[in-house]
Amino acid sequence: MTQDRDTLRRQLRQLRRELPAAARIAAAESLARHILALPFFPQSGYVAGYWAMDGEIGLHVLQLRLPPGLVWCLPVLDGDRLRFAPWRAGDPLVTNRFGIPEPDVAPSSALEPQALALAVMPLVGFDAGGQRLGMGGGWYDRGFAFRHGSAAPPWLVGAGFAVQQVPELEAAPWDVVPDAICTESATVLPHDRTARAETDPA
User: How many other β-carbons are positioned within 10 Å of the β-carbon of residue 148?
Assistant: First the structure.
């Protein structure tokens, strides 16, 4: 695959869109198991997910299985910034300028990224070293830029399908590298630079 980021995004987005429905359902189940098994998964605080669009792997199973001390949140756009607001199934939603549903709250009242215990970030591609390729808008890189110079929390987890893995991604200075990347079949721990992957025994 090409290293031109725009072309690579188009190729990988098409790959994930082509996954059959049965595979998506099974993947969401397995993804939840991998995320909940992370050694740093919190037991209290705010956990942010995302509303799956454009073939992204779903987080609905993860949301349903959160420990009782955790509050599920979704992203809210506040100008050119990303904030997060608690959301439960049935709570009102509005559609943002990109056509993505988000909680119907005043953006200024939503949580700052620093307030989260953990954030699950969508991705378009990733490599075995834990580098994440996003949609190109830089929302998560801007929102969590403070992690360049500070340790977790919030812990950052990229989520995608195994088919979205590429041999290698070129890093950009503004890229925020997640603390883990989880798919339906593996967990990649980027900061262990041996790129060790913990995979399902089956």
Answer: 12
Cis geometry, peptide bond prior to residue 153 (ω within 30 degrees of 0): yes
Task: Find out whether 12 and 125 touch, Cβ atoms under 8 Å.
Answer: yes
Cα–Cα distance, 6 to 42 (Å, whole number)? 35
What number of other Cβ atoms are within 10 A of residue 39's Cβ? 10
197 pLDDT more than 50: no
SS3 letters across the chain: CCCCHHHHHHHHHHHHHCCCHHHHHHHHHHHHHHHHCCCCCCCCEEEECCCCCCCCCCCHHHHHCCCCCEEEEEEEEECCEEEEEECCCCCCEEECCCCCEEECCCHHHCECHHHCCEEEEECCEECCCCCEECCCCCHHHHHCHHHHCCCCCCEEEEECCHHHECCCCCCCCCCCCCCEEECCCEEECCCCCCCCEEECCC
Please provide the size of the chain in residues: 202
Q: What is the pLDDT of residues 72-114, one digit of tens each?
A: 999 999 988 899 999 998 899 999 998 899 999 999 899 999 9
Mean predicted lDDT score pLDDT of the chain: 86
Alpha-carbon distances of 152 from 44, 109, 146, 179, rounded to whole Å: 14, 23, 10, 9
Phi, psi of 126, rounded to the nearest 5 degrees: -160, 165
36: Cβ contacts below 8 Å, ≥ 6 apart: 62, 65
